[in-house]
Amino acid sequence: RKDLLDIASLDREEIEVLLDQAVPFKELFTRSVKKVPALKGKSVLMLFYEPSTRTHSSFEVAAKRLSADVTNFDVAQSSITKGESVRETVETLQSMRTDYIIVRHKSSGLPGTIARLTKASVVNAGDGAHAHPTQALLDAFTIKEKFPDPTGKKVLIVGDILHSRVARSTSTILKKLGLQVSYLGPGSLVPRLGPENIQRFTNYEEAMKWQPDVVYLLRVQMERQDVQFFPSIREYHKLYGVTDARLEEIRQRGLYIMHPGPVNRGVELCDAVLDYERSLINDQVENGIAVRMSVLYHLRPNA
Ligand code: CP
């Protein structure tokens, strides 16, 4: 495979190969082996048109641990600010013989367009509301660490499903791996029919009766709200957020909590969630490096 653009185009076997390879990569860190020579002599270019903390730094660390050379393309300082087209940018990068391009852009489908323009392997690091495949892979890896056979386990994804590339990619990967997925959120932010007719709740208590094993909280994306945001942020926390009282119930039931970050404290969750013993939020960040190493290791740029 040359590129990783979404989860939908991966079959279960490919997903499992990527997840399995991440296990020894993660084990290397625990043995304090910081680098392997797998991508020595290869170049990785980070092309982020949108901000990122986790995905960007995680890809950079992953590429360096594979001994690749990493260049951070600074969009703000580039000729993009003078109106250079994506095509021209990519052709310029192609002339520099870049082997891998990691791209984040607000437009759905743009990484796919870039992939068709270049011999480099392109990894989608998030495109609009379309896909975030490496987030999905690290989410699946994190769940599999807790449930080695996750078949039939239930994951409730809570929040702004409509604008969320994470919800789209993560629910797709979990379904492919045999888990059950449901959505919970305000009617205006949860599509009536999700992928594969995923069950949809608009009431927290009703959703809890479904008895999830994992509660996956999404970030409320203030920057993508093109519909009237209803309810208000304070109401959202009351209706759908993990409040102190709900955290107590979650603790008693022994449920895991996940969140892709960045977290809006006091919106999706209360501060106490960050110290909750079954919060997997830091595990997700840590696992992101091993999973992204696995992705880079498996992709094959065209010669
Ligand atoms: N989860 C995620 O994509 O976070 P960043 O926006 O910080 O990369």
Automatic annotation (TrEMBL):
PANTHER family to which the protein is assigned, alphabetical: ASPARTATE CARBAMOYLTRANSFERASE, ORNITHINE CARBAMOYLTRANSFERASE, MITOCHONDRIAL
Binding site for L-aspartate: 82, 165, 219
Biological process, per Gene Ontology: 'de novo' pyrimidine nucleobase biosynthetic process; 'de novo' UMP biosynthetic process; amino acid metabolic process
Subunit structure as annotated in this protein's UniProt entry: Heterododecamer (2C3:3R2) of six catalytic PyrB chains organized as two trimers (C3), and six regulatory PyrI chains organized as three dimers (R2).
Lineage: Bacteria, Pseudomonadati, Verrucomicrobiota, Verrucomicrobiia, Verrucomicrobiales
Pathway membership, UniProt: Pyrimidine metabolism; UMP biosynthesis via de novo pathway; (S)-dihydroorotate from bicarbonate: step 2/3
Protein name: Aspartate carbamoyltransferase
Species for this entry: Luteolibacter pohnpeiensis
Keywords attached to this entry: Pyrimidine biosynthesis, Transferase
InterPro entries cross-referenced by the UniProt entry: Asp/Orn_carbamoyltranf_P-bd, Asp/Orn_carbamoylTrfase, Asp/Orn_carbamoylTrfase_sf, Asp_carbamoyltransf, Asp_carbamoyltransf_Asp/Orn-bd
Similarity section: Belongs to the aspartate/ornithine carbamoyltransferase superfamily. ATCase family.
